[in-house]
Fold this sequence. Notes:
With 503 residues, this protein is an alpha/beta fold. It contains 18 helices and 18 strands.
Amino acid sequence: xxxxLTTNQVKDLDRYTIENEPISSIDLMERACTAFTNWFxxxxxxxxxxxxxxxxxxGGDGLGIARLLAGKGFxxxxxxxxxxxxxxxxFKINLHRLSGKLTVSEIISPTELxxxxxxxxxxxxxxxxxxxxxxxxxxxxxxEQMNGASAIKVAVDIPSGLLADRPSKGSIVKAHQTVSxxxxxxxxxxxxxxxxxxxxxxxxxxxxxxxxxxxxxxNFLVDEDDVKRILRPRLRFSHKGTYxxxxxxxxxxxxxGAGVLSARAALRSxxxxxxxxxxxxxxxxxxxxxxxxxxxIDENENFxxxxxxxxxxxxxxxxxxxxxxxxxxAALGRLLKDYAKPMVIDADALNLISENRELISLIPAGxxxxxxxxxxxRLVGSWVNDFERLEKQRNFSNEKKAIxxxxxxxxxxxxxxxxxxxxxxxxxxxxxxxxxxVLTGVLTGLLAQGYPSEQAAVLGVYLHGLSGDLAxxxxxxxxxIASDLIDFLPxxxxxxxxxxxxx
Length: 503
């Protein structure tokens, strides 16, 4: 897992690296400048570059980058904003190193701002992650001037004006690309900040990894090595009973497609046996569309109203296409009471719980809830910003002893222990009807195979997003549909396992 550090932890990490590598502060800055410059050169062929610096260490980075880019033949213009902030020691050193090589222009007055029209790219190095309040004065004027420029804007470490660990206000650089060092900032992972962060990348600059391991953390970015460790190999002498029997409760009149998608995804995720509980009008649809699944027939023709006998299943997934009939709410309540083992709860099952609040206390411990933001808002109430939303998600998981998978770009997965995992796979093409039904099927299939709830959520969300990423390589984001995600699930498994297709 990639640990997402707070601003104070990053400062401590820098200090520890300087003291224990050992390396001087200015040499560590040079390492970061070199990493940024090498990345920039690999990405952009543009030659006219403007670099706007503050007077702290982020500005020192900007000055070092200016020197290195000029040495590679780029035409570089440098401005330093003098708005009253103290000059750091490393800023002074890099300013001296630039002397005689490039002209450094000073920005003092908000009425005499530079004209950035000649710049094809603007590099933002005004403020780093140490900023603790909204920018004001000449700094705000410069940021607005930069935002109005047509140049490609690239932020060093974090867009100036954006706070790393809490909500931001005021003027903030709207970067097309943000290049951070060693670890992403929590602010990068929230939708409300996407207009400022743009696409982001993290460059390794050799900060002490052993120290990172020692730091406490509750927020993590999942990577492929994590899911590779979770995913279990299939055993030679295993059989269908080895991989669990799941029950999927899905579909209603006019919404049987959701049940079909979820059932197909559960089977593709490796479940041994699958039974789908459907209203009687959906039986023929399900049996003809998903012949590998068995069906359990509800006593109602058009919607979920009764629960199957026995409930001898490893897990139950419920919600896709269910509808919100009052009889469905009553049946859901009976199911939650009678089953009392971890379930996957999605879509209309979540909406029924929101509308019948007494059902919240019946959610079995260890269950995986998969709301999109609006469904989550119905459960917990509104929020002012994404930081508050994350705390509501964390608190709900802790109070209900449930895993909450809040769907969207960089889906967040909260656990009862307070840990949150952010998922890096997936793309905007997956913003299409049925995508969530596929995820429900995948999670149900994994939970039935005996994966613990937390592992099933992390693995399932990663696989779901990865199948979408593989799909757009052959289709496009505009044309991707939910069925594509199921079709590319085998490739997602294969990529994680590094298996080669059998030919």
